[in-house]
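Quick one: GntR family transcriptional regulator from Ramlibacter agri, structure tokens please.
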Amino acid sequence: MSSEDDLGGAWEPVADHVLLRLRDAILGGEIPPGAKISEPEMAKKYGVSRAPLREAIRRLEERSLVTRIPRQGARVVVLDAKKVNDIFQLREAIEGMAAREAALNITPEEIAKLREALERQRVATEMAADGGYPFKSLDTDYHSAIVRASRNEFLIKFLSEDYHGLIDLCRRQQRRRPERTLRSMFEHQRIVDALADRDPELAELTMRRHVARAKQDILQNMSIPQADQGDKP
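--- reply ---
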């Protein structure tokens, strides 16, 4: 048994580090949907003992990025149409609430930063030669910024921490198309205008419509990955 195991909670900072690396590997596609997370392999790869690795996997399971299958261990979640629909139904309600609260609490400086982000999106879109989706991180920051502007610590934890990875994983299943990119930018602009006008009802309505349209687009155009059936329990 390693010294980390003997020290119990002393390995928690190591678990935090492994959690971030595993999460990034999942979101980046390095560990694909349905893939088994081999404890011996991951412990060797990250140079850690089993204890912090298991803690990291447990936390990923809490955040719904990993599922445990009897006699097969931990695997990366596979997003089917029902899971995406369920996730976005929750997003529509919770992000709508966050936008409502943000309209009441957002500062002029935060509004200015959102407008700057929209301008960066516009420029990046014009520069994208392939008509793709060149500002994934800007889109994520945009939604996170509105949630933070709500000043509600529970909304922030729920959307920016607990389920942020799962929401981001949904986004990565979407086949980005130029027409949706332009529409999304227009919807973002309307939400920011509602926030700037301090109109909570309109801010909630426009956010809910934006998330609902994103859900519809993903469900119509998503590529559903298949779990690897070759892994042995």
